[in-house]
Amino acid sequence: MQFDFLFKRPARSTATGDSLTVGSRQVQLLFVRNPRARRYVLRLRADGVARVTVPRGGSQTEALRFAERNRSWLAQQVEKLANRPKGRREWPIGTEILLRGDAVKIEADTNGKSGTVRLGSETIRVPTTEGDLRRLIEHHLRNLAAKEFPARVFELAAPHQLPVKRVTVRNQRTRWGSCSRRGTISLNWRLIQAPPFVRDYLIFHELAHLREMNHSPRFWREVETLCPDYLTAEKWLRGNSNLLH
Asked: How far is CA 78 from each of CA 18, 55, 158, 174, 219, rounded to the nearest angstrom?
């Protein structure tokens, strides 16, 4: 999973044609023009191809430079992809996952209710406690996020008079959130698994886009004003993003 606001400081690399040298590997580059895009975006696909979105008015030459500047980040993603276990991990009783930053186990209800399981303080109805419970638990967590996130966004936006029009909770596969020019904030439901300070940082990140629709130095100054300790949250994400799935 890739998040375009976690790019690291540029590093030197060499590029040849449609590929980029990343460590000992040659990573194929796919340049895709998107007239609705506002910035260059780099994403490593599941097949190992690095997709570079070229915004309106952008060029393939600058897209190549953008990919090259973010070679260190790409190297990390290539390594994660190579070490990723095949298939989705099942969640039977006893599986430990994150909920609001805490490691909690999926447990059979101790009150003798065969149709429910517990996840921390959450009680989840299930047809059976046998086998893989992942789909049902993820559905519950997504509903939980949809209930909690909108109120939190408006709560954080109000003191700064940021004009949020609408909040949606989505099953985003390549980013934690997004912000539209019309004032719609979209958040990934998986943030319900992150600590509250990380969730709040990512909300502030999207709120900052209401003033700066880019990732310029001015944007990051805005983020720091809204969330002075944002680097701590980014550090947590870099070390734990693989646990939010």
From this structure: 17, 24, 40, 15, 28
Rounded Cα distance between 216 and 69, Å, is 15
- Delineate the domains of the chain, giving CATH numbers in brackets: 15-83 (no CATH), 96-135 (no CATH), 138-243 (3.30.2010.10)
Q: For 106-161, write each residue's pLDDT tens digit.
A: 998 766 556 899 999 999 999 888 899 999 999 999 999 999 999 999 999 999 99
Tokens standing for residue 59: 């060029």
Structure tokens at 58: 């952008």
With the CA atoms of 225, 188, 6 and 52 taken in that order, what torsion angle do they form, in degrees rounded to the nearest 10? -130
Q: Rounded to whole angstroms, how far apart are CA atoms 153 and 200?
A: 8
| 49 vs 29: CA distance, rounded Å | 6
Residues in the chain: 245
Determine the distance from the C-alpha atom of residue 181 to the mean position of all C-alpha atoms in its chain, rounded to a whole number.
20
Q: In which region does residue 34 sit, left (phi positive, over 0), alpha (psi from -120 to 50) or beta (all else)? A: beta
User: Are 202 and 191 in contact, with CB atoms under 8 Å apart?
Assistant: yes
